[in-house]
Design a protein that fits this description.
The protein has 4 helices and 5 strands. It is α/β, with parallel strands linked by helices. The chain has a single domain, classed as Rossmann fold, CATH 3.40.50. The protein has a 5-stranded mixed β-sheet. Helix 3 (51-64) packs across helix 4. It starts with a strand and ends with a strand.
């Protein structure tokens, strides 16, 4: 039984769920508890060192994940870097979602409106 821990600020799309099941063998998806999700989604931009700030998420992973589980990590660049390295240290497999962007533009009332659509392509290991 492989689990995918979700450390990012969105909900998985149906396409991502299907891909994770088919290509990673995932049968359980684990979102962060609400308090840890708030912590991850609101990393203060003025902290020089994120180690102690991210300790509650690291503890959650240590207590709940097992060797070979996947961790989808996306968000604040410094936080991502920190947690990717931590995940590798405890034998988890850190991944991120790749996307294809489709952009369209149209002129409305003399102003250009730009619409970007993102479509999941695959999961990639860090």
């Amino acid at each position: 039984m492989r689990e995918l821990f979700l450390i990012f600020s969105h909900k998985l799309t149906n396409s991502q769920i299907e891909d994770a099941k088919k290509n990673l063998g995932i049968d359980k998806f684990i979102y962060l508890p609400e308090n840890l999700q708030k912590l991850w989604s609101n990393i203060p931009p003025d902290l020089e060192d994120l180690n102690s700030y991210l300790n509650p998420i690291k503890e959650f992973l240590k207590q709940n994940a097992k060797d070979g589980d996947y961790v989808l990590i996306q968000g604040d660049f410094g936080g991502v870097y920190n947690l990717v390295n931590f995940a590798k240290e405890i034998n988890l497999i850190p991944i991120h979602s790749t996307t294809r962007r489709d952009v369209s533009e149209k002129v409305v009332n003399g102003k250009v409106e730009k619409l970007s659509r993102f479509e999941h392509v695959m999961f990639r290991r860090y």
